[in-house]
Write a structure and sequence with these properties.
mainly alpha, globular, single chain, 4% strand, two-stranded antiparallel ribbon, two-stranded antiparallel sheet
């Protein structure tokens, strides 16, 4: 077991949490959102491990753990979710499209990192799957995680004035609905062997909502602090993939990792380029 990736991942996760906290301050609403995201990241992982018993973490490698979950994972998850929601705000997406955008945002990160993480191994699946050893169910879970948390937060935002209560309701509703939907998924959908098709349909629906809602968007540049979160995650796992030679057995995984890194960079760079072109056009006129 290589110890260095565990230490670097822990440092990066704490740094990411500090960065998004710095970006959020002094906005108390955003700070409560980050707190709820950390809690959700921990509870969904602990709940999934206890209820479904599909994977386990290599707890001996991680320097910070609570029960069956490395806090590294909860911190990193919260930073990525915050980055997704802030990017959606910068893109000025319609509120109805933000949950789908968040789900796709998380999915583009996990498609790149999970196949590398199991080779370190940060965690181990009880049964390997079709995506370089990762079960497709995992990506369904990540899609639902992004969809439900952001959806619960947006609903609570419009109905609950108290920030602590809003964060608590978001956390409770998102965890409960996630566990229920995952149980239904595993019992009904997975049994009928339509996992890949259902995931593809969900991604397409989410993408369609984002495109439709974003047809009239006037994006603002995404904060460099926010942009740095997903790009750093991609670069870390790409460095592990290359540094430990995992790409030699799975060269296609290297192609996927690089492609998704470019997706992450483009997602944050394009609004800045759009703003620059708009400023140039205004100056010429």
């Amino acid at each position: 077991m290589a110890q260095l990736p565990y230490l670097v991942a822990a440092v990066l996760s704490v740094a990411g949490l500090v960065v998004v906290g710095y970006h959020a301050a002094p906005d108390r609403e955003r700070l409560w959102l980050i707190g709820a995201a950390v809690g959700y990241g921990f509870l969904l992982e602990q709940g999934a491990i206890v209820v479904f018993e599909r994977y386990t973490y290599a707890l001996d490698g991680f320097p910070m753990t609570l029960l069956d979950v490395p806090l590294t994972i909860a911190f990193a998850w919260a930073a990525i979710v915050y980055s997704a929601l802030e990017t959606a705000r910068a893109l000025d997406l319609d509120t109805s499209a933000i949950p789908a955008f968040t789900a796709l945002y998380l999915l583009h990160v996990d498609l790149a990192i999970d196949a590398v993480a199991i080779r370190i191994p940060f965690w181990t699946w009880a049964n390997s799957g079709a995506w370089f050893g990762v079960p497709i169910n995992n990506f369904v879970g990540w899609y639902l995680i992004g969809l439900l948390f952001s959806g619960a937060y947006l609903i609570a935002h419009d109905r609950i004035a108290s920030l602590p209560l809003r964060a608590g309701v978001t956390l409770t509703a998102a965890v409960a609905s996630l566990l229920v939907l995952l149980e239904l998924w595993l019992r009904v959908v997975a049994v009928h062997g339509v996992i890949a098709r259902a995931l593809g349909f969900a991604v397409m629906v989410g993408a369609a909502l984002v495109v439709v809602a974003g047809a009239e968007i006037d994006p603002r540049p995404v904060s460099i602090l926010v942009s740095a979160i997903p790009v750093t995650v991609h670069l870390f796992y790409l460095a592990v993939l290359l540094g430990y030679g995992y790409h030699r057995d799975q060269p296609l995984l290297l192609v996927v990792a690089v492609a998704l890194l470019f997706v992450g960079v483009a997602l944050h760079a394009l609004p800045a380029l759009h703003a620059r072109r708009r400023a140039g056009a205004s100056a010429r006129s």
